[in-house]
Automatic annotation (TrEMBL):
Protein origin, superkingdom: Bacteria
UniProt cross-references to InterPro entries, sorted A to Z: DUF6282 (IPR046249), Metal_Hydrolase (IPR032466)
SUPFAM superfamilies: Metallo-dependent hydrolases
Name the record gives this protein: Phosphotriesterase-related protein
Pfam family, one: DUF6282
Length: 336
């Protein structure tokens, strides 16, 4: 039997080899809410990532600016870069320029500003779960306090003139070219408005969050790429944890909701990610895990599994290296 190159080109050791020089810009280690236990902490993640040969990772924290945590990790773990930033969730009151300015000068200094995770109006408005009778319930309809304490404080991106708060945040990002703007879990329309504003204000690094890409058509992905945006693709959206009700973002147990506000698992999965990379070109994408929750492997192992899946789906070595190392390296100015 003749050896087909695809049949014999994949192995666990090769997927581990791809970790050398890799960068994961979306990691959620502890600390976190008691209701959402973590698989690891930032120091353990840094040690595991360094020992695997990774160059860097970025800590995402939905309750704190992660620049302080990144700074502390860098004091005790040598041989790897650790980045932090700020996610404009309701714990900061939503659109808060003071918090963004502070993040620039605190700890290791912000490398990203994200316009909300579940704390966007678009995301929180549709969040829900199935009740004991199998009926789909929306948090905003079942719990009036959810509206006043969460939904009313959530991020919304205006179509017209930016609010004074949004304007100030855009100006701060533009004045700090080391920082990339990430859309967060906004609607497609809001994401495109952020890309327009980013270009208008001279922001050089623009990222369309995985949560937005999941809802995009091919034409919209092509449009975002044409506007100079990077396309983020994460593994966590395509795992067994997606349809499990949890409280990633709320201290109230009654606010348990399915991840991404979905009523079921996402469509397409990792195969869809590979298809998009092939169709639009690896030059425009970067991958990450979004791992940290205790029901999933550690982020480093998750990154290896993502790479292994992309190997199985026929991405070339060059394409994998681009989306796992070269492109995220450009976002954090880490390439030679």
């Amino acid at each position: 039997m003749f050896k087909d190159s695809w049949q014999f080109s994949r192995s666990r050791s090769k997927s581990e080899k791809f970790l050398e020089g890799a960068i994961d810009l979306h990691v959620h280690p502890g600390p976190h809410l008691f209701s959402s236990p973590r698989s690891t902490d930032p120091i353990k993640t840094a040690i595991e990532a360094r020992d695997a040969g990774m160059r860097a990772f970025a800590i995402m924290d939905v309750f704190n600016m992660s620049v302080g945590t990144a700074w502390m990790v860098q004091q005790v773990v040598e041989g790897i870069e650790v980045y932090g930033g700020i996610i404009l969730n309701t714990v900061f009151g939503g659109m808060n320029p003071r918090a963004v300015k502070t993040a620039m000068y605190y700890g290791s200094g912000a490398r990203y500003v994200t316009f909300g995770a579940h704390s966007t109006y678009f995301q929180a408005y549709k969040e829900g779960r199935y009740d004991d009778d199998g009926k789909w319930i929306l948090l905003r309809e079942k719990y009036p306090k959810f509206v006043t304490e969460e939904l009313d404080r959530c991020i919304r991106i205006p179509e017209g003139e930016p609010t004074p708060e949004l304007k100030e945040i855009l100006e701060v990002i533009a004045a700090n070219p080391q920082v990339y703007l990430e859309t967060g879990h906004v609607s497609n329309q809001e994401a495109f408005r952020l890309l327009e504003l980013g270009k208008q204000y001279g922001i050089k690094k623009l990222v369309v969050s995985n949560a937005v890409v999941e809802n995009m058509t091919d034409a919209e992905i092509e449009k975002a790429i044409g506007m100079g945006a990077w396309i983020e693709r994460l593994l966590a959206a395509h795992t067994h944890t997606t349809p499990i009700p949890k409280t990633h973002y709320y201290v109230e147990p009654e606010y348990r909701a399915m991840d991404e506000g979905l009523q079921s698992t996402t469509h397409g999965g990792v195969a869809k990610v590979a298809e998009q990379i092939k169709k639009f070109g690896a030059d425009h994408f970067f991958i990450g895990t979004d791992f940290g929750v205790y029901t999933l492997p550690t982020p480093v192992e998750g990154f290896r599994e993502f790479i292994a899946c992309l190997m199985d789906l026929g991405l070339t070595d060059e394409e994998i290296r681009k989306v796992s190392s070269i492109n995220p390296g450009k976002l954090v100015d880490l390439n030679d």
